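User: I'm preparing a small set of examples for a lab meeting where we compare how different chains pack in three dimensions. I only have the primary sequence for this one, and I'd like the structure in token form so I can line it up with the others. Please keep the answer compact; I'll paste it straight into my notes.
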Amino acid sequence: MKVAAIQMVSSPRLADNLACARRLLDQAAAQGAELAVLPEYFCLMGHRDDDKLAIREPYGDGPIQSFLAEAARERSLWIAGGTLPLEASPAQDGRVRNSLLVYSPNGEVAARYDKLHLFRFDNGRESYDEARVLQPGDRPTRFALPSRDGFVWQIGLSVCYDLRFPELYRWYAREGADLLLAPSAFTDVTGRAHWELLLRTRAVENLCWMLAAAQGGQHENGRRTWGHSMAVDPWGQIVAQLDSGEGVVLADLDHSRLTECRQSLPALGHRRL
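Assistant: Understood. Below is the structure token output for the 273-residue chain.
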């Protein structure tokens, strides 16, 4: 299956970000991708954390969701729509969910995942605390994607900071996942130190393909994100990557590679705990 990790440098303007996403999705579809993954916060990187509250949408309705549904339908493309702010149901304390919606080629929602783990970081120069405006999700989510060659890919969903919590990905592996998605917006500091390490480790320890679409560059709000969107095979090899700036990372995922790795090193069957 040909897949695309879309890298963006999103701005504080929703319309501009949707236009950029549309252009990059066109490129992915034109090059034969069956699945395209947008990065975390593809729709908005605001000046303040609470700027995302102004574009929140109820689940099932709103311009961002309409954009994703239309983009999938018009391009006959599976789209994992990065993340967007969805209203919690029932609404509580003004915070929102940081939600990843997957759309099938008919424009319908095939899966929803609300980011489980909320990022907090303070090194004296940079400070982040997502819990100020976000509510955590409460469950993992996986879905099945039948590719054009007839193989049905089992896909596990995650977002950014989730990468630091291996138990989530082990749960997906136990449930039969073949591919793990991780749309992200890693900071330059944490990305430089840990991004590649975490992605390759999650792929190796679970013998799964990994596809990570990232924010990558200097944003208008002053934040710098690490980028390096990539596809990693089940042996931990990076098969495609883009360092910085907007663009499309294309990779061919071979399901026979899964079989080869799992048969030669059946580590998932050797678990004792």
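A couple of notes for your slides: The chain has five helices and 18 strands. The domain at 2-270 is CATH 3.60.110.10 (Nitrilase/N-carbamoyl-D-aminoacid amidohydrolase).

User: Perfect, thanks.
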